[in-house]
């Protein structure tokens, strides 16, 4: 078996994830290819697509959300994703057992004496009257179960029911707590048959390969996938990682040369290319991992030569915005200029071109 270095895996991953160069692809096709986008924050999917699509505008993504071609709901790893409608309808039922386990292990003890089916039924009744935020849903449920934690009571409904975050919340330029609607009320139909695991595995490899069993399990939240990979082995190409792990891939999938130039990219706080693997050395070198402790999520990062090289943040006050770039290691003059140029472009995008951008580089940690 051929051994692939982390640098080779990096270039393959960037190519699959549309991060090696921007492409002229419709928004819906890109979201379909990537099997959804991380969507814990309002602007996360917009930033992800700006990094990937040539000529992308927020209006293009907003239009697809408004016409219900794209839906935001809880799926893989019990986290929010923005999916094409067919993907949400077929992936959610596949991961439902995982969602059940997650709730039972994390929140069951905090639900007091509330009966889950009864809470679920009451939640459906409330949401059939009108969309509401999770906070309002929990508050109204607590009127029936005073001993229960409102947050957990709302989570019972969110676990057992496919709730979609709908406009006017969760679209570009609109803040506030997301409004939740039952899938059936928003879309006019319910879930479909679960996607076949073999088909989902092939799609995962197309978007994230070469990858191992543990990588797909981390990405999806599903377990015991080794037999699925083994059943597909005759039609896959097998590689070995630097550390000896077995990696699977589609035979004809792109695996660019390790020296292929990789542009600077400013990644959002939650990003597919980072969260899609158990072993993240292909994108997160050791020095980056040491400086990226998870505190209520991971920070927004930027890449240099394809690998995470630092953090960034953007603060805005009226018509002024400050972009703070914090490299993990010292940057040479050319690299510093490339990082500043791309960071300025991202800041310009995030402010709709309506703010003057000031850039500052934070000191490199000792």
Detail the topology: elements first, then pairings.
Layout lengths: L1 E3 L1 H11 L10 H7 L3 E2 L5 H9 L5 H9 L3 E5 L5 E5 H22 L9 H14 L4 H9 L7 H11 L2 E4 L12 E4 H5 L9 H12 L4 H8 L5 H7 L4 E5 L4 E4 L15 E3 L4 H4 L10 H5 L10 E4 L2 E11 L2 E8 L5 H18 L5 E6 L5
Parallel strand pairs: 1-7, 12-13
Antiparallel strand pairs: 2-4, 3-4, 5-6, 7-8, 9-10, 10-11, 11-12
Helix pairs in contact: 5-8, 6-8, 7-8
Structure characterization notes:
The model has no long low-confidence stretch (mean pLDDT about 95). Strands 9-10-11-12-13 form a five-stranded mixed sheet. A three-stranded mixed sheet has the order 1-7-8. Among the domains are: about 20-185, no CATH class; about 285-360, no CATH class. Strand 12, helix 15 and strand 13 form a beta-alpha-beta unit. The chain has about 375 residues and is α+β, with helices and mostly antiparallel strands. It has helices at about 5-15, 25-35, 45-50, 60-65, 85-105, 115-130, 135-140, 150-160, 185, 195-210, 215-220, 225-230, 270-275, 285-290, 335-350, and strands at about 1-5, 35-40, 70-75, 80-85, 165, 180, 235-240, 245-250, 265, 300-305, 305-315, 320-325, 355-360. It is globular.
């Amino acid at each position: 078996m051929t051994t692939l270095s982390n640098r080779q895996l990096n270039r393959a991953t960037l190519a699959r994830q549309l991060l090696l160069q921007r492409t002229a692809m419709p928004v819906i096709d890109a979201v379909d290819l990537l099997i959804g986008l991380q969507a814990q924050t309002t602007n996360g999917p917009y930033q992800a697509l700006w990094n990937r699509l040539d000529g992308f505008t927020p209006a293009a993504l907003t239009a697809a959300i408004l016409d219900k071609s794209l839906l935001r709901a809880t799926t893989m790893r019990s986290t929010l994703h923005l999916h094409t409608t067919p993907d949400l309808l077929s992936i959610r039922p596949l991961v439902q057992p995982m969602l059940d386990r997650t709730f039972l292990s994390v929140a069951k003890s905090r639900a007091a004496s509330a009966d889950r089916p009864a809470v679920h039924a009451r939640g459906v009744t409330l949401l059939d009257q009108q969309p509401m935020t999770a906070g309002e849903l929990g508050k109204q449920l607590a009127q029936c179960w005073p001993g229960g934690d409102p947050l957990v009571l709302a989570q019972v409904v969110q676990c057992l029911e496919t709730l979609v975050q709908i406009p006017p919340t969760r679209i570009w330029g609109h803040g506030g707590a997301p409004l939740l609607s039952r899938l059936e009320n928003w879309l006019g139909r319910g879930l479909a048959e679960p996607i076949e695991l073999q088909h989902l595995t092939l799609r995962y490899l197309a978007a994230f390969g070469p990858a191992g069993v543990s990588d797909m399990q981390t990405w999806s939240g599903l377990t015991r996938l080794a037999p699925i990979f083994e059943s597909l082995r005759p039609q896959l190409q097998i590689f070995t990682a630097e550390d000896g792990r077995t990696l699977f891939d589609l035979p004809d999938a792109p695996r660019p040369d390790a020296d292929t130039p990789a542009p600077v990219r400013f990644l959002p706080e939650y990003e597919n290319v980072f969260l899609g693997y158990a072993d993240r050395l292909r994108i997160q070198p050791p020095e980056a991992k040491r400086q990226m402790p998870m505190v209520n999520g991971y920070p927004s990062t930027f890449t240099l030569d394809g690998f995470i090289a630092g953090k960034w943040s953007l603060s805005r006050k009226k018509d002024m915005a400050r972009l703070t770039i914090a490299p993990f290691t010292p940057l040479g003059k050319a690299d510093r200029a490339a990082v500043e140029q791309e960071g300025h472009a991202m800041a310009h995008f995030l402010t709709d071109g309506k703010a003057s951008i000031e850039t500052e580089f934070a000191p490199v940690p000792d």
